[in-house]
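User: My collaborator and I are trying to settle a disagreement about how two of our proteins should look. Neither of us wants to argue from intuition anymore, so we agreed to look at predicted structures for both before our next call. Could you fold the first one, then the second, and keep them clearly separated?

Assistant: That sounds like a sensible way to settle it. I'll keep them separate. The first protein:
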Amino acid sequence: MVTTKEEWQAWRSHPLTKAFFEEISELASECAAQVLNREAPDIAKDQFLKGYVRGISEFAGWQPQIEQEEDDGDRTDSQPGY
């Protein structure tokens, strides 16, 4: 996905987006706490929760490809103009 820097910043700063990321961060923290505070290990559930937390973390850190801004023509080429 390609977007502009302004569109990405507007989306990330929108109140709904912020609320969503706060909720998934809280959910990831709760899942991690379940794994860490369990008295008797449940290997299958613990592995699932660890994968879930990792997936949420990767999702939260994702960023789209940002469009490069157009040059205004002042740039000089790296090749000499012989």
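The second protein, kept apart from the first:
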Amino acid sequence: MQRILLKEMIKIHIKLTKNKTLESLFHKQLEWDYFEFDMKWTRRQDHAGFYLYLEITGLCYDFSISDNRHYSYKLKRYKKGF
């Protein structure tokens, strides 16, 4: 578990479609690394989608476009009603 201490934060949350959400977060951390980069694209799981994280000397940017639904491994499809 990584502890994040936020000094300032700007967050954008936009519902793109019924099941897709865009989130963008810019913040400054008090405890930081010189450089960190992480990117992933997930499928067939809860909140699947594209994720990007970039940190340079404590200035951080998080970006994601993800699915709001939960995935059922038994049924091999997204559950309805979430």
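Some points you might bring to the call about the second protein. The CA atoms of residues 44 and 76 lie 8 Å apart. The chain has no helices and seven strands.
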